[in-house]
Design a protein that fits this description.
about 450 residues; alpha/beta; five-stranded mixed beta sheet; 18 helices; about 40% helix; D-glucose binding; Phosphotransferase
């Protein structure tokens, strides 16, 4: 049976309408995003109704004049990375690094003491290889990027909420990971003090702020953002706008604090986000059903899967892949049949991904909301605003920046102002950013 071109075009048109995002929606979503920010900054207990808006206890933004040698340790998966970053004080730095695979038997079925003893040994090994010239009286400050959910109560304090990414060491849950790590560093007598528990998104904001020479760029770094496998943002908020800090002891001189927004959790209650049948299918395939619903609609980890689900729907309607299916003895390629095997990279090779483009422009909502929220704080700043970004989507997806900025202008948070928003690449938030976190702690 032949398939008419009109049948295919009609089906694709219906899919485009499902993913449609217009100017009215963008403005409505931006308003809802602002409300979610306010609720998250006020309420200590996170719910589906608003974003977590996590205080980081980072209370200053780099100027580019910072100097000194700092360490960064990064545990986010099967590899452990140790870096030294020599900040030159002129927006530049020298970086040395080593990567160490984490043995599988330390990731689960072991103890936290065994894991952190291993990590501490690699920090000491790194120092022996790259910095054996250090004076014995020198203690290096280190930022620790720990890419697992933590309840952070100070810059250098954070209790593990749960393990992810293949780790399962129950004795560490509810314990302070900095305390664990420092204990084993001290046992080895390594001259290292962990002064900051870092986050890669916060690190992206700090690393771009350090690298940004405002006298040349004419732009103030306002936001750090990840647009990659996942998505998240961080920005500097006035301390008076963070009511949930009221029960904590904050130095009187503190004027603001970097907030880790966890914006992948925006609108988990689905009050505003579009919800197609394809989004429901993808959500059911995940281990955290009903959570991170914004991220599941627009991040690199999920765009390829959304495309796969759409293609399989069209196939089941008998509209595509019919001849391919027959030629393969009634089977389809496994990348089409198995969830999450169709990489989002495929989209960057195609010029027929309009429906995905419609999803991506939704990423302008958080940027517009943040600019609306804080622009009055920068009323006397003559410079433009910039977003420091990291991640595979921002680096490799064709036209990504242009689509975001076009939608941002539609929302118009800077209407009536001469300022513009610029998007810049910020590299290595988990390394350079963590070191900059550590550098904020005074002796």
């Amino acid at each position: 049976m032949s398939i008419s071109a009109s049948s295919i075009e009609e089906a694709i048109s219906q899919i485009d309408q499902l993913f449609g995002v217009d100017e009215a929606f963008l403005c409505k979503a931006t308003s809802h995003f602002l409300s979610s920010m306010d609720a998250g900054l006020t309420n200590e207990v996170p719910t589906k109704a608003y974003m977590p808006m996590l205080p980081t206890f980072v209370t200053s933004i780099p100027t580019g004049e910072e100097k000194g040698l700092f360490l960064a340790a990064d545990l986010g998966g099967t590899n452990f990375r140790v870096c030294s970053i020599d900040l030159k004080g002129d927006h530049t730095f020298d970086l040395k690094q080593s990567k160490f695979p984490v043995p599988q038997d330390l990731m689960k079925g072991s103890t936290s003491d065994a894991l952190f003893s291993f990590l501490a040994s690699k920090v000491k090994e790194f120092l022996g290889e790259h910095h054996d010239e250090l004076d014995e009286s020198v203690t290096l400050k280190m930022g620790f990027t720990f890419s697992f959910p933590v309840d952070q109560s100070a810059l250098d304090r954070g209790k593990l909420i749960r393990w992810t990414k293949g780790f399962d060491l129950p004795d560490c849950v509810g314990r302070d990971v900095v305390e664990y790590f420092q204990k084993h560093i001290d046992i080895l007598k390594a001259p290292v003090l962990i002064t900051a528990l870092a986050n890669d998104t916060v690190g992206t904001l700090l690393s771009r702020s350090y690298a940004n020479d405002v006298s040349i760029s004419k732009a103030t770094t306002l936001i750090g953002a990840i647009f990659g496998t996942g998505t998240n943002g961080a920005y500097f908020e006035s301390i008076t706008n963070i009511p949930k800090l009221s029960g904590l002891t904050i130095p009187e001189a503190t004027t603001g604090m970097v907030i880790n927004m966890e914006w992948g959790s925006f609108d988990n209650s689905l009050e505003i986000l579009p919800c197609t049948k394809y989004d429901l299918i993808v959500d059911k395939e995940t281990s955290n059903k009903g959570y991170h619903l914004f991220e599941k609609r627009i991040s690199g980890m999920f765009l390829g899967e959304i495309l796969r689900v759409v293609l399989m729907d069209l196939f089941e309607q008998g509209l595509i892949f019919v001849d391919l299916y027959r030629s393969r003895n009634n089977t389809l390629p496994h990348r089409l049949q198995e969830p999450f095997l169709l990489s989002s990279k495929v989209l960057s090779y195609l010029e027929i991904d309009d429906s995905t483009d419609l999803k991506i422009i939704s990423l302008s909502d958080p940027l517009a909301a943040i600019v609306k929220r804080v622009k009055d704080q920068y009323a006397n700043d003559p410079n433009d605003f910039e977003v420091g970004c990291d991640g595979s989507l921002i680096e490799h997806y064709p036209g990504f920046k242009e689509k975001i900025l076009e939608a941002f202008d539609l929302i118009g948070p800077l209407k009536g102002s001469s300022k513009k928003l610029k998007i810049r690449i910020a590299k290595d938030g988990s390394g350079v950013g963590a070191a900059l976190c550590a550098s904020t702690v005074k002796d």
